[in-house]
Amino acid sequence: MKESSLQAALSELENLARSQCETEAREDWSASLDRLRDEEAAVSRLLAAAAPSAIPGRKILPAEMGARLDTLLASYSDRIARIERHKRNNRDELASLVSARGVAVSALNLYSSAGN
């Protein structure tokens, strides 16, 4: 019984992570925040389901579940790296737009000064 609830909790987290990754790939950030909350709750349920099967003083999962959890954790690292790249690209794009706006404002000021 314990292992089936652990399997269910791990499967739920895997499905949420996969769905979240797809949402992030579409850059649907408002839906992404909602799904992150769902993932956080799923992590809590996974930890609660894993607690009864832990050996006192050590946290040991069945090998197959450990491999699935390792894959899930690796995907989190990839997602975080992708989000960081996206943020960096957005900062670069914003800096470029601010610069272009400055050039445009200067040019408009020249035109308005020439008209006086």
Write up this protein.
The protein has 116 residues and is mainly alpha-helical. The chain has one domain. 84% of the residues lie in helices and 0% in strands. The protein contains three helices and no strands. Helix 1 runs parallel beside helix 3. The longest helix has 52 residues, at 63-114. The radius of gyration is 24 Å and the shape is rod-shaped.
What is the total domain count?
A: 1
Number of strands: 0
> What global shape is seen?
rod-shaped
Relative strand content = under 5%
Mean residue pLDDT? 79
Q: Work out the helix count.
A: 3
Helical coverage, percent range:
over 70%
Keywords:
rod-shaped, 0% strand, 116 residues, 3 helices, mainly alpha
List the helices and strands and how they pair.
Layout: H1 2-25, H2 29-50, H3 63-114
Helix pairs in contact: 1-2, 1-3
Provide a brief overview of the structure.
This protein has one domain.
